[in-house]
Every structure is written in structure tokens, then in C-alpha cells.
Amino acid sequence: MRARPQSTPAPTDPSAAEARTFTLAGHVLVAPKAAAGLHLVATPIGNLGDITLRALETLAGVDIIACEDTRVTHRLVDRFGIKATLKPYHEHNAALARPVILQHLAQGAAIALVSDAGTPLISDPGFKLVREVAAAGYAVNTLPGPSSLLAALTVAALPTDRFFFEGFLPSKQGARRTRIGELASLDATLVLFDSGNRVQDSLRDLADILGSRDAAICREMTKLHEEVRRGSLADLAAAADGLETRGEFVLVVGPPQAAARIMPQADLDELLRSSLARDSVKDAVAHAVEVSGRPRREIYARALELAKERNNDQT
After folding, report:
1. Which pick of 26, 70, 203, 287 has the fewest CB atoms within 10 Å?
2. pTM as predicted
3. Over the stretch 158-176, which tens digit does the pLDDT of each residue have?
4. Residues 101 and 175 in one domain
5. DSSP characters over the chain
6. 304 and 209 assigned to the same domain
7. 256 and 156 fall within a common domain
8. Residue 297 belongs to what domain range?
């Protein structure tokens, strides 16, 4: 850790105006200017005490902090006495903001990228910025730290040797059920984000399609009202009406049992119908073979039947 207690400089000290500081446990610490380049800084997902010392030093030492919502990041930097220049970078302005950030980097600036909470680039547009910064030859440094998906995975009491992060499921039920069907055959624990206004419907669809797998509902991780519910998907879905829906959710679903990795016929039909509505028989079959665990010959025969039914319905 390079930070050190701040000493009051003499009036003639030319470095006084350049001092970059942050406050920790009532002590003012000096942070050296951060190295030129892009710094990916993980920030707390709820409890501000989870910020790392390296993150504080970097946020105090950069020239610009690019953030999703300046109001959210202001609360963080104000808490630790960091005087920072905040610039918005989010999905709505990213295309316009990236060239500006690259221009600053070309001039030797040090820039931190943060999300509202957790590790940047996870379910946010940051990867496009990192791709362009790296392609332009500028340094990209990562400062690991809080992550809601890893926090939920570790507390869910489910297998962690192999997991698949899905992010948010589609908001519309038809698309959501189709996507769950596609995930059904994955031999891995599933980690999903969800919002309070959809989590009850998501749980019911997950239970309907994935069956009684072990699962966990993780709400408001590291915050005052943190809650973890564990049980079978069926039981969690049955109790969904009594779920507190305020806050942010991570759903963790255990992997299928070996016998359950073959997609049920009804789910296969639903998947094929959805695919045939937008793709050719060949493409629909190829996709179903990947996710259903069923033999190609069987799927191809069923796809022809469903395609014929669809054509008859349209005539």
C-alpha cells in the first residue's frame, strides 16, 4: 500500500497544490497520481466498508472517474473525502463518451471506470470501452473487489466448481421461458440477476421448466436487509407471493441431475416452435440439438411436423 499519512506541506512546497488525498478512519492519506491508462475499479455492492485500500488510492489518484450515475458515485467519493472529476459513462451515452475518453487517454490521463455497484463490465457497457482502449494501445488495469454474482454464488450453498452467469432473463414471459429452456441442459450452477417487479414470475417459470432443483434467492447482498432463502425451486416458487420484492436479486440455481439433462418433450416443442417462427428448420434443429440433449434424428422429425402444422395454420 503506497498511501501514507498526510503531512502538512510548507507553503513553499510546489507539490502542495497537487496533493491527492482520501480519508480513512479519520485519517487523511495522500495518494500518488495514478499511472496513465484505464483503471477498472470494483466498488461496494452495498456496504461501503467493502471498498479496498487500492481502490481508494486509485480513485483519489486518477484525473477522471467515468461512472454510470454521477449521483451514486458522488456518495462514494464524498464518503471517503475524495475530490474527483466525475464523467457519466453508461449505455445511453457510451457511443459518444468513448471517443472523449480515448482523447483524454491520448493526452496521458489516468481514468477510472466504475459501475454503480460491484465490478465494472458485468452487465454494463464497459467491455466496449475496454476493447477500444486496448486496441488503441493504452494500458488497462483491473482492481478486483466486490461482485454480487460471486457473493451470491458463495453463500447459496450450491456447487461452485462450474457455473454459468446468465445476467438478466428476458422480461417477456415467452422469451423468458424459451431462454430458460435453452439453459436447462447446462451442467452447471446458474447465476441470474433479477429485479423486484419480475422475480416472482421468474421463479415460477424457472420451477416450471427446470423442476425441483436446489436454488437460492439472494436479496440485497451486503446491505442492511440482506436475505438469503434456500430450498427447491418448486418450494421457492410456491412461496414467491410472500417474497419481499424491494431491492436487488441474484438467483442461484443448482445444476441438473444426470437424468434431468434431457429436455422434456413439451419444452422441446415450445423451443422448436419459437425457433421456427424466426429461423429455418435446419437452424432450429441445430439449436435444439445443442440444448435439449436429444438425438438429431428425433428433433429433425419433430421439427418437420411442427413446421407443417405452422404452415397449415397460416393457410
Report:
1. 26
2. 0.75
3. 999 999 999 999 999 999 9
4. no
5. ---EE--PPPTT-TTGGG--EEEETTEEEE-PPPPSEEEEE-B-SS-GGG--HHHHHHHHHSSEEEES-HHHHHHHHHHTT----EEE-STTTHHHHHHHHHHHHHTT-EEEEE-SSBSTTSSSTHHHHHHHHHHTT--EEEE----HHHHHHHHTTS--SSEEEEEEPPSSHHHHHHHHHHHTT-SSEEEEEEETTTHHHHHHHHHHHH-S-EEEEEESTTSTT-EEEEEEHHHHHHTGGGS--SSEEEEEEPPPPGGGGSPPHHHHHHHHHHHHTTS-HHHHHHHHHHHH-S-HHHHHHHHHHHHHHHHHHH-
6. no
7. yes
8. 265-314
